[in-house]
Specification:
alpha+beta; five-stranded antiparallel beta sheet; 4 helices; 5 strands; flat
């Protein structure tokens, strides 16, 4: 089976600037905009839906299944790099659900959205800031780094907080005043 691309591929143009490998974003506050969002089933949610037969039963299972809201952020630093953020917005774990919905609430506030939010589209394209962390995880296969003799570690990013874009404080433009004469 093949996929319809939807446009003519020009390799020279399309590959320009492509670094070819994942690069971890440095930790700290980063200005971003949401460029894509979607709802997906968690692994447990997918198993729940797969366990039932029939369209009606699958729809009911999907409505009750654990879901996550996935945001793709584009960094607004001129690099065209992206970050992915996954929020548990419907989960049988009340703690996971509370954390996910709390993060969504902070995103809503950070983007300046007012009122009820039924779709994520109103959040798209609105600048805000995310706090990026770098996590190290051991290789699941237990591969050994030949240089160090230790299990290889892989780094990835996670988003840990959200806020409105912070105004940059301008440097003083006038020279300091001389002390008053006595």
């Amino acid at each position: 089976m093949c996929a319809e691309i939807g446009y003519a591929v020009n390799p020279e143009v399309d590959a320009a600037g492509h670094k070819g490998a994942f690069a971890v974003v440095d930790p700290g506050w980063k200005k971003v905009v949401i460029i894509e969002s979607k709802v997906e089933l968690t692994k447990a949610g997918q198993q729940m839906v797969d366990a039932v037969d029939g369209v009606k039963e699958k729809k009911k299972a999907w409505a009750q299944a654990d879901k996550m809201l996935i945001f793709i952020y584009e960094l607004q630093d001129g690099t065209n790099r992206t970050l992915t953020d996954r929020l548990n917005t419907q989960n049988k774990s009340e703690i996971a659900q509370r954390i996910g919905r709390g993060a969504l609430g902070k995103i809503k506030i950070a983007t300046g959205h007012k009122g009820e939010l039924l779709r994520t589209e109103p959040l798209h394209g609105r600048p805000f800031e995310v706090l990026v962390a770098v996590e190290s995880k051991p290789d699941k296969k237990g591969e050994i780094d030949t240089a160090t003799g230790k299990v290889k570690e892989f780094k990835n990013n996670s988003v840990t907080d959200y806020r409105a874009v912070q105004a940059k404080t301008a440097a003083p433009t006038s020279e300091p005043k001389a002390p008053a004469a006595w």
